[in-house]
Amino acid sequence: MENAVYWSGRQVGIECAGRILWFASAPAQAIAAYGASEPPTPQADTVVARNLAMPRSYDPLHVPD
Fold first, then answer.
1. DSSP state, 38?
2. How distant, in Å, are the alpha carbons of 12, 16, 47, 52, 62 from that of 8?
3. Of 15, 31, 39, 65, which residue is least crowded by CB atoms under 10 Å?
4. β-strands 10-16, 3-7: how paired?
5. What is the pTM of this model?
6. d(CA 19, CA 40)
7. Could you give the CA distance from residue 36 to residue 19 in angstroms, rounded to a whole number?
8. What is the per-residue pLDDT for 61?
9. Cβ neighbours of residue 2 under 8 Å, at least 6 residues apart?
10. C-alpha dihedral over 37, 41, 47, 51, to 10 degrees?
């Protein structure tokens, strides 16, 4: 079960299985207050990158080349 992590009244992360997954917008003070040994490193999000791709538009009257 996931639990929200709050700092100064706003959600800054999600705790699951004893680990906190920090949002990119989480302030460094919040991360330090929860005892993280090092700040999180940004990682590529392949799901977001995949969803940003634009498919070709569908035109039922277009004849393929």
1. S
2. 9, 20, 30, 32, 55
3. 65
4. antiparallel
5. 0.52
6. 12
7. 10
8. 80
9. 14, 15, 16
10. 140
According to the model, what pLDDT value does residue 16 have?
86
Q: What is the DSSP letter of 53?
A: P
Does residue 27 contact residue 6 with C-beta atoms inside 8 Å?
no
Which tokens go with 36? 């993280």
Q: Which amino acid is at 34?
A: Y
Q: Which two tokens stand for residue 13?
A: 């992360």
Alpha-carbon distance 7 to 26, whole Å?
Answer: 8
Per DSSP, the three-state class of 22 is strand
**Cβ neighbours around 31 below 10 Å, total:** 20
